[in-house]
Every structure is written in structure tokens, then in C-alpha cells.
Amino acid sequence: MRIPKVKRQEKLRETIEETPFITDEELANKFNVSIQTIRLDRMELSIPELRERIKSVANHQWNETVKSLPLEDVIGEIIDLELDKRAISILDIGKEHVFTRNNIARGHHLFAQANSLAVAVINDELALTAKSVLNFKRQVRQGERVVAKAFVEGINEKGLTLVQVDSFVDSEKVFSGEFHMYRSTEKKENNE
Amino acid sequence: MRIPKVKRQEKLRETIEETPFITDEELANKFNVSIQTIRLDRMELSIPELRERIKSVANHQWNETVKSLPLEDVIGEIIDLELDKRAISILDIGKEHVFTRNNIARGHHLFAQANSLAVAVINDELALTAKSVLNFKRQVRQGERVVAKAFVEGINEKGLTLVQVDSFVDSEKVFSGEFHMYRSTEKKENNE
DNA sequence: GTTGCTATTATGACTTGGTACTAATAGTAA
DNA sequence: TTACTATTAGTACCAAGTCATAATAGCAAC
Prior knowledge:
Arc Repressor Mutant, subunit A; 5 helices
């Protein structure tokens, strides 16, 4: 069964970004079209042929230095905040957030945005993340805007505040996290 | 003026090691011999042709040793690596890692170190984090050294590879994470 | 001078993963 | 029916080779 051209081309680009060493023949098999269609698609999308891609990868300088994250406490820009209820922040994915080889955002930026929003939504500036459960739904690319929404869901039996954070690109969920937060004002014990 | 064969072949090997993207034609011009001679030389020296060399570099297999790092941006310094088994990295917490108001390391740096180590330990450079469960045990301060240790624990029923990462400061556990990783070579389905 | 060997060069068929171009076919909307 | 888009097929050509065969030149041994 064949998908529409626009969708196929979108997936083609993603596939080549994720597996740059794939041949046109393999792509034709994968998308159930002819090799000429793949080549027409690549031409329309300005995606170079396999050997050019291999050469680009080989030529690229991989030894990037680790980039320090921004010094702000909040990753992203808070655009809505209701303490102890909910908050929203946005993060525009720039090239400093992505792996240069495939323009995919590093997971820890998504986590950093979500985590800092979870801390920010709590009416306690000394709140700490004790535990979190993260789900990465799909890769985020340079140029996309991540909207993170945090909801305070209550306190569990251990006295930790539960904050759920869901992140979206264009109403498509790309990440979700469950954050179990210490509040400094409700700590049962103070140990380090 | 032409140099003897043995010397030429020695210089040929050196030249290709220094500039692996050089063509046979360029080598023939450089050594003042025919392109067939270069090809005979390469055959005798078991030096692969240009496209194979480019492919090797691109695949990061050229001169790969255990101490060569995988192509991910690793947070921290890998000091031990056994692919698909275990890895260790260290991260010295500087002021760029901490909140300025209390010198406490932000959680996402610990996560970033652990996550990148979980990716690095997997023998698949396209590995992705699908899900993770994080436990922050205590705060980490500026000036402390975080030693993260990753162990590949196996594959769960969903086909994801489980990697456990524990981080220590002076043999005291400060963080633990359970990472559920996609491998590109074992994907059960391709959805997004 | 001849023979045998090595080194070098030339030639041609073929491979792989394409580009570029032309042309044909099918589906669909107007 | 027409016009357009999407797709496919066919063909010439390209680059950087491999592989095989054959020719030539230089040189040492006899």
C-alpha cells in the first residue's frame, strides 16, 4: 500500500537522516516505489546521493566540544505559570541543541526543559527532582518548537509532589515525563 | 625521476594514511607513475580503494580502537569502555553545571552524562533512548567529581536494550537511571 | 646476443551507485 | 476529452574502481 507523495518525501528525508548510508535501491524497497521515484524525490528534496553523503560524513569534524547548557535556571521560555497547578514553556530548537550530524535534538535538552518546568511550577524555589520517568516519543529537529506543559498532580504516599510534563511539537507529543519532586518545606528527612 | 618500488610503496602507504580521500589518479600524478601501478601497489599492500576508505571513515571504523569514542556527544570523559557490556565516565562539576544561587548541580547534567554514557556503551551508533527511569539520590555540588558507570543488562520483552547507569561521588551513589534503548539494527517496528 | 625476470603501462570488460534525459502509462480533476 | 501530476521504464553516461590479459622496457645471468 502506497502513501501520498508528500508524506513519503517527509519520511524519506527522515529515513536518510537517520540512516545516511542507505542506498536508493533499499529506499525503493522500503517505500514500495521504483528507484526512479526515489531519485526524483531526492532531487526535489536536494538530498545528495549515497556517496556524497558518505563523503560528507567522513569529512565532517566529529570532535565537537561539549557545549555548556545555558546558565538560566529554566530551559525554555515560560509563557504561562500557575504555581502548584500548571505551567507552560517553549523551547525553540536551535543548532546548539542538536547533534550536527543529523539535526536531531539531544534528549537531555528535552529533559532539561521538562525538568526545569517541573521545578518552576512548584511553589518552592528549593524544589528538587527526586525521581523521574521519561518517555521519548519521537526525535525533535532543529527549527522545531517544543511546547512543554506541566501539571501538578498531587502528593504521593512518600510525600513527594508529582508533576506530569508533556512536550509537544505542533500538537504532536514528542516527550512525556513523570517527575517526583522534593519540596524543601515538606521534607520528611534532611540527609545528604 | 622515479624512485624504487619498495620506497614508493612505503610513501604510498604513508600518503594514504595522511590523506585517505586521495584518488588513484592523484596518487599516480604525485608518484609519477601510471594509475595501474598505483592499483597494483594498493593490491600488494592490501590498501582498499578510495570509496571503501571513505566508507570506513564514515562508518568510524578507520583505525578504531577501544579508546576511540563513539560519535555521540558524550557528556563527561569516558575512561573505560567495553561495547555492549559496560562503560565509565567522569564529569567534574564546574560552575557552568550548577545553579549560581546554591552551587548545586542541575539534574539534567547528571542525566545528560548518564544518558550519553548509556548511548555510548551500546554497539550501535544510532541507538536512541526510548524511556528512562531516573533516581536522584542527593545533590551534587560544584567541585565534585561524578563517576558514572553503565552496565548493559539485556533486552526486555519489547526488544529494547536495558542499560543501568549508577553515578557516584566518592563511592556514594548520587544518581541512578534505568535506560530503555532502541537499537537501529533490531527495531521491531518503524513508527513515529 | 639471448633468456628470464621484474616493473611498468595499456587495454578492455565489468561493477556499483548514481545523474540526466526522454518517453510512456495511470489516475484524477475539470 | 483534456490537462496535469505521479510514477515507471529505458538509455546514455559518469566516477572510481576491479580483474584479466597483454605489451614494453630495463637489467642481470649466461
